[in-house]
């Protein structure tokens, strides 16, 4: 097509051969008219020159055609004069008609010549663009990263690119003898036939994942896409074939699927639910297990505010804060959830903040801690009950020596047994009051002075006892433990120290430290007088309570000094353990 247009364009332009042809036509025309006029005797017919003018216009152009017209008109008038010896009005009319006709013919054919040349130039430019596009297509077709081929509706391969050869391992002549279904595993040939059938049924394109069988016997996964030619094309048999090697993507997808299955299995085994909070939208999405932990029906996405209906009001700020941007990367809170059945469940939310495009997300897992917390609380309760039983046992075992000491300390006044009995009962009741103080765990909060005074109340009338210190309120938990320390010191003193000696003295005082640790309260228990078994330090339950080994039941930094002249016990209580 391009060569034809170039030939036509070259013929439209004037060439030396065209000049020669024009001269020959003009000369021949004039000679024939002269012979006709001289020898045959017929006059010049000016209209006979018009075909000559048309030929010259086509070969030479407008100006040459006008000049030839003038020349032929002059030649015709000259021959008319030679023949008739004069020129008539008809001769002049014919000559003028020839000039006008020749000028019009020259102008019209000149315009047609220009239009034809312009059309040829446009067609040539379009043809060049088509050639360039075809060249680019062929270049892309041959060097594409995908396998390209042309086939017919029967699946016969007509043309393939270089990549298609590399993927299949076949040469060009070998592929020309194969069909598409011959390039895939037998199990996937039905899929190829189905793709071709879709095109026959009018589908513009169709695709499927198949396994391509190479020449060397190896197979790989590929995405096979077939598309038919356009309906307005002359041939509708052409099928465009695209083969994309997806082996790596499929392997990665399979690995991701297997990893997801393992993750789902691990989450299910650990009874964990996954959640995701969109900070910008204020929405929360979660797995089925997550909604089950919260006691809500499964749903893809919920507004975060909707969870306020089940989250404990005291814990809602913790969850609401998760929908606000934060500098902290990790997120770890525990909330209480009131389920529809009325049960309160403890739920731990652990995750981190991530950026997904322009969206800030919090993602993590949720775990139901209710059973674990119940187990922890139960263990703590059992441990506390065991400790209370041990304390009660120790207190009960110490009770008899104290009663015995009370009996020995009271002398019979003037051999008055009734009065002696009354005094003994009074001391035992005082001891009972102290014992009840240690047994009532919820009512131990009170003044430190009262705890000391009640413990020493049975001995105040028969022993020299002094109590001094600022007025302080001791919390219930600390008061219980501190009362046990006082009871242990009292029992020890009755058995081995000042309270067991009629001449013994006991001084109890407490004050804030003045050695730089201003937040500590220093408690001192000082005994003076005879001391039984001063060189023996027993390590029993009582020693554990007062902290002979360095860890008292309450407080810190205990010091115990024992000599034959008495005993000194010192203990520090921090500011957190007392209340002013």
UniProtKB/TrEMBL annotation:
Q: What is its EC number?
A: 2.7.13.3
Annotated Gene Ontology MF terms? ATP binding; photoreceptor activity; protein histidine kinase activity
EC class, as a word, reads transferase
One matching Pfam family, short form? HWE_HK
Q: Which UniProt keywords apply?
A: ATP-binding, Chromophore, Flavoprotein, FMN, Kinase, Nucleotide-binding, Phosphoprotein, Photoreceptor protein, Receptor, Repeat, Sensory transduction, Transferase, Virulence
What does the record give as the reaction this protein catalyses? ATP + protein L-histidine = ADP + protein N-phospho-L-histidine
Q: What is this protein called?
A: Blue-light-activated histidine kinase
Q: Which organism is it from?
A: Mesorhizobium jarvisii
